[in-house]
Amino acid sequence: MNPKAVIAFCIALAGLAAGTGALSEINSEQGSDALLWVMVSRFGIVAVFAALGIYSARESRMRASIILTADDPRAAFQDLLNYGILPGFMIGLINYLFFFFNRYSPRIAPRIRGMEDVYDAFLVSLDTSIFEEVVYRLFIMSCLMFLIQHLYQGIKSVWPVVVSVLPRAMALVLSSLLFAVAHNVYGFTGAFCGGLMLGFIFMKSGIESAIAAHFVANFLFFSVSYLS
Q1: How would you label 178-208 residue by residue, b for 16+ Cβ within 10 Å and e otherwise?
Q2: Are the C-beta atoms of 225 and 127 separated by less than 8 Å?
Q3: 3-state SS string over the chain?
Q4: I need a labelling partner for 194 at 20 to 30 A (CA). Which of 48, 128, 204, 209 fits?
Q5: pLDDT tens per residue across span 14-57
């Protein structure tokens, strides 16, 4: 990968995360005291984590980004559609079938339970999908794969098949567990299953597809559950 292209990609992703985070904060009508902090922290975290994640993914021979690796724009869009947008609808539908009746549970964040319009659902979906996918898939999952591959490098000649599969499987499960823990005990099971699906999407088609799937799933679930 071209280092300049990687830097530009990370800055663009960080800028998008900072912008959506700020808009989401403003739209929540909770005041703007923390607005600057939200923008700066989101930009810094996403920029650094994205750069480290892309490096780890490259060293692990995993596709980190469609934009940075695709030669044909049409093929890139096809990947985004097949591995991001369409699976996102499926994940959103599964969320709806399993969690619709608990949508107004006090365990659900007030910001989500209190959604009033499509714009709010759009902002929350985009904000969470960019930030969480960069942190849990691009950064954590890629770094785990990089570390586990190096840990098992010594036995590659003895068990080549195991070593080729085990790091990916362990990184997928461990990153999904961390993702589930972050969603507390009440959302653990759903977040873990969702993390597995999003992790698989990331391994197959990069961070853009994972973000797209996460966004579509959240937006579909929020729109049908709270705005219909």
Answers
A1: bbbeebeeebeebbbbbbbbbbbbbbbbbbb
A2: no
A3: CCHHHHHHHHHHHHHHHHHHHHHHHHHCCCCCCCHHHHHHHHHHHHHHHHHHHHHHHHHCCCCCCHHHHCCCHHHHHHHHHHHHHHHHHHHHHHHHHHHHHHCCCCCCCHHHHCCCCHHHHHHHHHHHHHHHHHHHHHHHHHHHHHHHHHHCHHHCCCCHHHHHHHHHHHHHHHHHHHHHHHCCHHHHHHHHHHHHHHHHHHHHHHHHHHHHHHHHHHHHHHHHHHCC
A4: 48
A5: 999 999 998 988 887 655 567 888 899 999 999 999 999 999 99
Amino acid at 177: L
Tally of CA atoms within 13 A in the half-sphere of 211 that contains its CB: 19
pTM: 0.93
Q: Are 18 and 76 in contact (CB under 8 A)?
A: no
Give Cα separations from 124 to 27, 109, 145, 210, 216 (angstroms).
Answer: 10, 12, 29, 16, 11
Q: With contact defined as beta carbons under 8 Å apart, do 130 and 16 qualify? A: yes
- Note whether 146 and 56 are within 8 A (CB): yes
Distance CA 179, CA 164 (A): 24
Q: Could you read off the pLDDT of 84-141 as tens digits, one per residue? A: 999 999 999 999 988 888 888 888 888 888 888 899 999 999 999 999 999 999 999 9
Predicted local distance difference test score (pLDDT) of residue 11: 97
pLDDT value for 161: 67
Size of the chain in residues: 228
